[in-house]
Amino acid sequence: MTELHSPAHAAALDAADPLPTLRAEFLIPRHADEEQAYFVGNSLGLQPRGARAHVEEVLDKWAMEAVEGHFTGQAQWMPYHELVREPLARLVGALPSEVIAMNSLTANLHLMMVSFYRPTRERPAILIEAGSFPSDRYAVASQIAFHGFDPDTDLIEIEPDEPGGLISMASIERAIAEYGPRLALVLWPGVQYRSGQAFDLDAIVRLAHAQGAVCGFDLAHGVGNLELGLHDSGVDFAVWCHYKYLNSGPGAVAGCFVHDRHARSELPRFAGWWGHEATTRFRMGPQFVPTPGAEGWQLSNPPILGLAPLRASLDLFDRVGMRALREKSLRLTGYLETLIRARLADTLDIVTPADPGQRGCQLSLRVIGGRGLSGRAAGRDLFDYLARNGVLGDWREPDVIRISPAPLYNTHGDVSRFVAAVEGWRAA
Ligand SMILES: *Cc1c(COP(=O)(O)O)cnc(C)c1O
């Protein structure tokens, strides 16, 4: 019998996998004279080989056509965002009119809250998870203060009730019921960035709406990772970035979903000319008339150079389909979990839920000990050792190593290298 984590066993799993890897479509950073085992797609996804051609196309068009590039030839800039609209809608389970690629994640979160966080004296509160991503907490607290309310009382954070910082559905249900009449907005992550816990989005929307609250999602770690059905979930809005699992480059243009029932919303919004009704935008009139759907929240003409890599990325998601990709992700992360439990149980504690339905590809790991170290010191030591050996995870304070096998380009072979490297650290 081959060892579970042996390179031969991993190679056999890769060869037999129903979804052959698209690794060759990516540029994999090198370490010494081999490719890195890169598990940081949850932070910055790798560059699709196709990205360069799309970027160069824009540069060439700019060089040769300048302003005419907006209106002439292939991939015109005026309707350029339409090139990503349908693939993006497929990716998140939305109507094409419900999605838009624009701005950055935190900027989109603010724009969405301008319209969908409408606090009143009776109902001023926003509910989020304790330990949320700092930018989200800053955004939410500043919106509460902007409306003249007090984040100390009106920002409600649900504390984890399970080991490892996990939050049970029962606890979410209790909190939404308890604070219900005061809740203006429930803002929840698709996948929690530190613990890797994935949530039942449909259930959270139902609970929030039943209390009369608006519901929004931050899908920074959910998009390109989970199979999403945003339209059917009924969520009011969602925001995400494209540089993590969407592999569209550092600071890539972000994404935004506005449910169809708000397509012609008359709620206040911060307006810009690109959100104006497209057919009459260039009459340059003084009155803002929003274009229906998510596009109506655009402010500016989009950064075409920023959108170009997203096209290459979405081509790959479209080629595979999110369902098949998620199934591969379950196999890869399942293999990682199996190996950790079989071979590293004395070294690593898995924080992320064991139920595959409650996680995406990421496993968050706490280092129990090794090499005479324990806790955070052991964690930092292992993390540095891995990096020196070409195995890249990332570190989240105070003591979590995140390892995210991205199913587009990570392989069972990468997972086996991770396990062998941890064993090497433990033995050294
Ligand atoms: C990555 C991430 C961000 C980053 O915000 P930017 O506006 O893209 O810089 C925000 N929130 C969450 C939950 C994230 O995971």
List the helices and strands and how they pair.
Blueprint: H1 7-16, E1 26-27, E2 30-31, E3 34-35, E4 37-38, E5 47-48, H2 50-65, H3 82-92, E6 99-101, H4 105-116, E7 125-129, H5 134-146, H6 151-154, E8 155-158, H7 169-179, E9 183-189, H8 201-210, E10 214-218, H9 230-233, E11 237-240, E12 255-258, H10 304-320, H11 322-343, E13 348-350, E14 363-367, E15 369-370, E16 373-374, H12 375-388, E17 391-392, E18 394-396, E19 400-403, H13 412-427
Parallel strand pairs: 4-17, 7-8, 7-9, 9-10, 10-11
Antiparallel strand pairs: 1-5, 2-3, 6-12, 11-12, 13-14, 14-19, 15-16, 18-19
This protein binds pyridoxal-5'-phosphate.
Q: What can you tell me about this protein's structure?
A:
- It is a single chain.
- This protein has 2 domains: 3-35 and 321-427, Aspartate Aminotransferase, domain 1; 54-318, Type I PLP-dependent aspartate aminotransferase-like (Major domain) (Aspartate Aminotransferase, domain 2), CATH 3.40.640.10.
- The chain is built from 13 helices and 19 strands.
- The protein has helices at residues 7-16, 50-65, 82-92, 105-116, 134-146, 151-154, 169-179, 201-210, 230-233, 304-320, 322-343, 375-388, 412-427; strands at 26-27, 30-31, 34-35, 37-38, 47-48, 99-101, 125-129, 155-158, 183-189, 214-218, 237-240, 255-258, 348-350, 363-367, 369-370, 373-374, 391-392, 394-396, 400-403.
- The chain has a 7-stranded mixed sheet with strand order 6-12-11-10-9-7-8, with helices on both faces. Strands 13-14-19-18 form a 4-stranded antiparallel sheet.
- Strand 2 (30-31) and strand 3 form a beta hairpin.
- It is globular.
- The structure holds pyridoxal-5'-phosphate.
- Residues 104-106, 133, 135-136, 189, 193, 218, 220-221, 241 line the site of pyridoxal-5'-phosphate.
- Pyridoxal-5'-phosphate (PLP) binds at residues 104-106, 133, 135-136, 189, 193, 218, 220-221, 241.
